[in-house]
Amino acid sequence: MSGKDEFGVKGSPNVTVCDNCLFVEKRRLRTVSGEGSRAVGCEYGDHEERGMTEATHILVVDDDPLVRDMLGRYFEGEGFQVSYAESGESLREQVAGTRFDAILLDLRLPGEDGLSLAREIRSKSSVPIIIITGKGDMVDRVVGLEMGADDYITKPFHLREVLARVRTVLRRAAPQAQEGPGAKFDESAGERLRFADWQLDLVKRELLAPDGHPVALTTGEFDLLSAFARHPNRPLNRDQLMNFVHGRDWDPFDRSIDTQVGRLRKKIEQDPKEPELIKTVRGHGYVFTPKIERL
Hints:
By secondary structure, the chain is of the alpha/beta class. It has nine helices and 17 strands.
């Protein structure tokens, strides 16, 4: 189902979208003298004046021109540089010639599988990817994270939430960024940690295997490993891990943490099916078992 159908905007002249909301409804327009037509009754009420950020370059990938325009106007108003793609072909053209700081990728593109596109991007780049899915597409969310996406957003959504998610993945992807919510739990943690002959550099955001070779991690995988390494031998529940990694509370129906744990195990465990480093605590969550040394 495309974004057009889900939002109910296809071919309807009565659809309006508040400038600060991605909350699309069939509303009546009313004309105010001297002001023309405007949206009436936005459920989010009056909006605060938006601030400006650094000129970070993001790519918005969606086949719906209304959604592209709305996201673009909002992020440009926040000081971002925005480029657009409406299909897998135009996405490939954009990423081939331009370096982006983050990509917002709608999974429901015509003629293309957005999940395959996420995997294709991840195989060539570590750029943060935030996938956009329908409200009931739980499988797509999980598979998207398995393909290497860093976070997800479900439709319909508030533009402030999108901005917060983008800023979060950008902050965590930056080499000199703070470690996010997990950092405040252990202020004394060193910049470089060693566990089971692996080395984790929290500043460079780099993981070295026992043989010294770097291991590629997505932003979410690195944040998850950092949270574990900062809290060794301490059972962490999914709510804590979700807060550390994505900065939000865990939904009982959300399996994204389990998905990322599974991916991380494949990269650091000798036998991911019989993990020794990240163990499952039944009825609670996970525990990181190796001894941590600060270098």
